[in-house]
Amino acid sequence: MELLQTQNRHSIIVPQEEIVVGTNKAFIEANTLEVSLSHLKTDCTIPVFSKDNECTISHQEFIGTAYDCAKSIFSDYAVSMPEVRVSHIVKGRIPSAIGKPVKELKEHEKTIYYERMMFKIEIPDVYEMINGNLVKLTLGGVRAYNQENLYSKKTFEKFKFFIGFQNMVCCNMCVTSDGYVGEMRVGSLEDLKKQILEAIGSYQMQYHLESMKALTKHKLSERQFAQLIGRCRLYNYLPKKEKVEILPFLLNDGQINNVARAYYEDDSFCREDNGDITLWNFFNLLTSSNKSSYIDTFLDRSLNAHEITQALSNSLNNRTSVWYLN
Question: Name one Pfam family in it (predicted).
Answer without folding.
Answer: DUF3871
